[in-house]
């Protein structure tokens, strides 16, 4: 899988050199391209934003600059993901869909976002285009959201995660995942004991306990 990130802040994507994603890149399981939007600016001021038609506060990112940047990386197998506060909410199901794609392009805007004709143009040209949000809160730009999506998607790619069993476990439950509390040594810490059943070696009883503990945790976190 290829992941391309377009942004005026390419340094935001340095963390993708670390940990499991970094190792997956070394193994060529995933390929990552980071592109400075400003390299595609069309005037001597290297301008990427302009005042909004219709007035109002803030600036809007210029379509010509985005068009040049996207044209450089897009192919017929690409999915263009435009991060925006009002996009479709990202969840585990979307992560699974996106993990089947060969090429994701993340358009990471700033200011008040990207001129909407960029979305319209690539949609009209027959490309897969999605506007995506990672949650109901307002960020300053799309970069952090793109990293969140890239991490959730890339761990579903075979070979990225060390232990594939941890993914199998996640797909067992109704709403995408089960979440039971985890414990390690020591068996007692600051007066709190690990549940006895987990020390028993009885795998059927352990599975039963984890299911019920996971459900009660899902409830008290609502
Ligand atoms: C991309 C620019 C900042 C702030 C206007 C009008 C919006 C844009 N879950 C998520 N939250 N925020 C983003 C996100 C934010 C972005 C960009 C993604 C590009 N910004 C920005 C304010 C506004 N506001 C009133 O309603 C709220 C527009 C995001 C994701 N993914």
Return the structural class. Answer: alpha/beta
First and last CA, distance: 35 Å
Low-confidence parts lasting 5 or more residues at pLDDT below 50? none
Give the oligomeric state of the chains in this entry, treating copies of one chain as homo and distinct chains as hetero.
single chain
Main beta sheet strand tally, sense and closure: 5 strands, parallel
Bound molecules: ligand JEE
C-alpha Rg, in Å? 22 Å
- SSE pattern: EHEEEHEHEHEHHEEH
Mean pLDDT: 95
What is the beta-strand fraction? Answer: 15-25%
Number of helices: 7
Can you walk me through this structure?
The protein has helices at 19-26, 63-71, 92-99, 117-124, 143-154, 165-170, 203-220, and strands at 2-7, 31-36, 49-50, 60-61, 78-89, 103-107, 128-133, 188-189, 192-193. With 222 residues, it is α/β, with parallel strands linked by helices. Strands 2-1-6-5-7 form a five-stranded parallel beta sheet, sandwiched between helices. The protein has a two-stranded antiparallel sheet with strand order 3-4. Strand 1 (2-7), helix 1 (19-26) and strand 2 form a beta-alpha-beta unit. The relative contact order is 0.15. The structure holds ligand JEE. Residues 83-85, 109-113, 132-135, 137-142, 145 line the site of ligand JEE.
């Amino acid at each position: 899988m290829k992941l391309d990130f377009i942004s005026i802040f390419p340094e935001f994507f340095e963390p993708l050199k670390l940990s499991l994603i970094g190792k997956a890149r070394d193994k060529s399981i995933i390929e990552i391209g980071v592109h400075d939007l400003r390299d595609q600016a069309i005037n001597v001021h290297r301008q990427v934003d302009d005042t909004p038609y219709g007035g109002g506060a803030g600036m809007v990112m210029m379509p010509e600059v985005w068009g040049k940047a996207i044209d450089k990386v897009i192919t017929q197998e690409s999915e263009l993901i435009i991060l925006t506060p009002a996009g479709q909410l990202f969840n585990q199901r979307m992560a699974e869909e996106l993990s089947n794609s060969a090429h994701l392009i993340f358009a990471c805007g700033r200011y008040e976002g990207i001129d909407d004709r960029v979305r319209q143009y690539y949609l009209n040209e027959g490309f897969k285009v999605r506007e995506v949000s990672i949650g109901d809160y307002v960020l300053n730009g799309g970069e952090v959201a793109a990293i969140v999506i890239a991490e959730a998607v890339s761990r579903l790619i075979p070979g990225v995660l060390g232990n594939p069993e941890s993914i199998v476990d996640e797909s067992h439950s109704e709403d995408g995942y089960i979440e039971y509390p985890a414990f390690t040594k020591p068996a007692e810490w600051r007066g709190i004991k690990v549940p006895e059943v987990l020390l028993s070696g009885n795998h059927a009883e352990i599975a039963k306990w984890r299911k019920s503990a996971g459900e009660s945790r899902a409830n008290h976190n609502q």
